[in-house]
Write a structure and sequence with these properties.
By secondary structure, the chain is α/β, with parallel strands linked by helices. It has two domains: about 240 residues, Rossmann fold, CATH 3.40.50; about 180 residues, P-loop containing nucleotide triphosphate hydrolases (Rossmann fold). It has 15 helices and 19 strands. The strands form four sheets. Strands 3, 5, 6, 7, 8, 9 and 10 form a seven-stranded mixed beta sheet that branches. The chain has a five-stranded parallel beta sheet with strand order 16-17-18-13-19, with helices on both faces. The termini are far apart.
Amino acid sequence: MDTLLKLENIIPQNETVRFSQPINWKINSSQHWAIIGPNGSGKSLLIDILFGKYALKEGKIIYKEKKTCLSNYIKVVAFRNIYSFTKTQDSYYQQRWNIGLNDDTPKVKDILFKNADLKWIKYLIETFRIEDLIEKNIDLLSSGELRKFLIIQTLSTQPRILILDNPFIGLDIQARQVLEEVFQNLKNLKNVQIVLLISDLYDISPIITHILPIKNKEILDSLSINDFLTDKKLQNTLFTISLNDKKFLPNFENQNNQNNYKNALLLNHINIRYGNRTILKDLSWKVVKGEKWLLSGPNGSGKSTLLSVIAADNPQAYANDIILFDKKRGTGESIWDIKKHIGYVSPEMHLYYKKNISCLEVISSGFFDTIGLYRKCNNEQKKISIQWMEALHIEKLKNVSFLTVSTGEQRLVLLARVFVKNPSLVILDEPLHGLDMGNKSHVLRIIEEFCDSHKSLIYVTHQKNEIPTSINHELILTKHSN
């Protein structure tokens, strides 16, 4: 059995990114690994060290094909670079919804077929079943569609080792099944080893043969998949389910209350189009005060677009008949008046915080609905922000840069940003995206407690076990043929 990659006694120069012990790990041919651990445990950090983001004080990285550089031998697909082909370089969140109309925006085919092995690319397109995406503009792909595209684009370079960071999050049931089939096909090809970075036992793929557990920047003993699945003590060690009580939530009863309305939302025959492509067609929807809705539908059905319309991020919102809190859109209110009583988080929001600001500042920006903190919080607002950090168990990140924490920790920070202003309408698009098992349980309890009888909730997820018990209505979107 050949050793394809070996990390031998690795110690980074930077003390802040060191693990508790020197890093030792190796991947042999025919092995497929899952690196598993809670949010902030060091999974992504391990990969950053592997790719030379941090200089080494001791140790060495050995891989089989010396004639090939490490960055070609190993490829990573991570959530943080899923929008690398879209125009997210500016920190203005609404920009995504202004794009898609530019003639110079590349299509999927423009990137996939460029300098590629056409036979291999066609095989991947057929395997992933994305024939319907080929003619789409990159910036109009949904989160799930972008994930599939990025995996294919990475596989087009034919790496020997493919590392995927939380590959299943954001995928609908069908897309998840397709990805599992792709893993099986890659496994059968015997020329690529798969490594998954995951935070949930549910995401362990059937192809996985070995597990590398990590917690608190400590690499525990690796073991076979069978030994791991039967070791309940180890699983409980990795994922501690935290109990939550309402007394731990900040006191927000008299803060920013908006109770004098009948309907939180009223949409009348909404239509959204980009060029010749119809995203939403003749959609009407009413959300009565206090109702809890599940918004569902396959990847690409328009869920994120619909939410952008409601939250006033999409410029096409003003060409449609929309009533929020019994007030008709476009009758004199500013965008900030609209957002004042709406708390909104989506998978894309991670990508718009590119400045080196602290997690506390990101949370505090929720008071002003800005991407970044441009106004100074008063003492009460700062106190509330810290209380929400404590409620979500992330107070240790208060002064840490948002850019340096894990994707799961970023999600907790952005959730705290939603809650700080005590919104009357809470819109949560994949709120448990990237969270470990313990944090998922904890955040679900907080959502249930926060969204009391007076608050309205719109909730998006593809996982049935992530739906709050308070959900009592469902709107199902379907993809339009164009």
